[in-house]
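Hi there,

I know you've been waiting on this one. I reran it after we fixed the sequence typo, so this is the corrected version. Both the input and the resulting structure follow.
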Amino acid sequence: MGETPNYQTLQVRKEGPVYWLNLDRPERLNALNATMVEKLNDYLERLMTDASKRMMVMRGGGRAFFSGVDNSRGTRPGASPPPWSGMPPENSLMCSIWARIWRPHLRLSKG
């Protein structure tokens, strides 16, 4: 990953061998939507193929780290996640994302 990508729902910056990944949907408490899932998948693919990356630190912009799946498009609370991207249930979604990261990583949450 020679250059730092520019994503609509993520902020990424490099400090030496450490990459900082900031979830950037503070107006929705960083809830995942189809765009964010797509961009996270793209970023993680890049992370896995770049040997210069030694560590990733992930945090959420605004007042929340992560609030689950964005249900604002009519999905009722407690229902299955929206059909886009074949997302797993909310309680395992972030775990499935973390499972793909084999490099050391930290998740910074507030509280």
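Quick highlight: The radius of gyration is 14 Å.

Best,
R. S.
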